[in-house]
Write a structure and sequence with these properties.
heterodimer, A: alpha/beta, Rossmann fold, 2 domains, 4-stranded antiparallel sheet, 13 strands, B: mainly alpha, globular
Chain lengths: ~300, ~240
Amino acid sequence: MTEIVARADGVTRRYGEVIAVHDVTIEIPAGQIIGLLGPNGAGKTTLINMFVGLRRPTEGTVRLFGRDPRDVKARKHMGMTPQETGLPDTALVGEVVDFVASHFPDPVSRAELLDRFQLEELVRRQAGGLSGGQKRRLAVALAFVGRPRLVFLDEPTTGLDVEGRRTLWDGIREFNSGGGTVVLTSHYLEEVEQLAQRVVIIDRGRCVADDTVDALRQVSGLRRISVTVPEVPALPGVVGVERDGDRVHLITADADRLVRDLVGSGVPFTDLEVQAGSLEDAFLAFTAKTPAAAA
Amino acid sequence: MRSILAYTKFELVQAMRIPMVYVALLFLPSIGMLLFVIPALGDDPAAAVLGTSSMCLFAALIMCSAQYGLGIADARLKPWGGYVRTLPGGAVPKMASMLALSMVLVVSGSLPLIGIAALGTEATISIGQIAAGLLALGVGVIPFGLLMLVIGYAVNPYMVSVVISILPIALAYLGGYFIDPATTTGFIATVAPFTPTRGPAELVWFAIGDYPPNPVSLVTFVFWTAIFGLLALRAYRGDEGKRFR
């Protein structure tokens, strides 16, 4: 049986009148990459903060390696990214790394870590003077200093260029193939699709979906039909249109009918493709399904 | 122990990076030297020594309030402070390192005040007494540091700057830092032994002069240190960063 490295049982967190997280139950088994998705303000950060011991649940229990996350021992095998705005501006990169490393019994050496995240040349620079992408890389690197078994990566690639993002993805996959567990939040659904095996969608503090990426795509029932066409005819049953040059993506619930209509319309199209809807479609379907809060 | 050293080094390096801050913190105690110690006690060697040490304690109080009160409140508002709390360090290295840092700051902050005393008063003191006095100051600063930890963690961060701009002066005044330590009558002399500022002062006075410490002050010294220590631990553990409604 797979070890459960972290779990939340019926966890609710209130801030005064506001319920940020409402009765969420999640198990995080060792070796998984889990994407945590949700609109802004859905409660993702509050949920993560409870897993890392920053906040106590109002109700329910959170366990990290079988202990209360507020217990220092529970956090020995856990890594986390600080928000990039949160680095101490005046501290040197090397000092920040050394400081974080001092908390762990067997940290990665500074040289090795900086090399892995392409930060070697920045070791004598002050954190406040780094570019956005450099800060982000440093923030992510800090999550891995203590040779963690579980990392929480909050928006790890925001502000990175394409190459930086790919490099980081490779790093996350490598960590995962060595048995590491990852909980990832991201605004880039594509990123979650690429990396995660499982997706948890949080909306208005509740867990509205928890399944594999493939299953979630299917559940939304939407299909994406891509064609190269100079002009898109008005067709019934299209719920969304995306343009990418003269490549057009039509989102629909009934792919068969749309293809028939497309052929019937007589427009000269080429390169027809039909795909299961993306995670993004599923995400929109799930977060829209939740009944709106009484306003 | 390794993490206490790492925390101390980190705090010290960060503190030294902007040294002008500490010059500003020495402003009020220096004024105290010029307006109180030199004119009122300057002609009496023994009293001038004690008065100077009172200003060193006052400086210590101000530095602690800036370092802890403001420093912690600031860290609670910033994501880095939250991040450090997720590291497996706990409260002990954090607090121990801050106390170590205050001892360094207080000793270095006392030197200019001792310099003023040497130039402007009749105070005479041996090197051995200065060393003993600084040692006593290092011990005496512990309850100040703990008190400011409590304030830093327990008070609303936006309120902290108000509290710490009033508290050091009020405590220094009530503790009798601005009167001749030998005074035994009057309101201040009556309430002083019960304040958290008096015990540390009497310890320092005892170390550098022939001041006989009041047993009541020493008992309250231990009492306040224990109380502030407990409250500081509780406040640290109960802290969840900033709170919004």
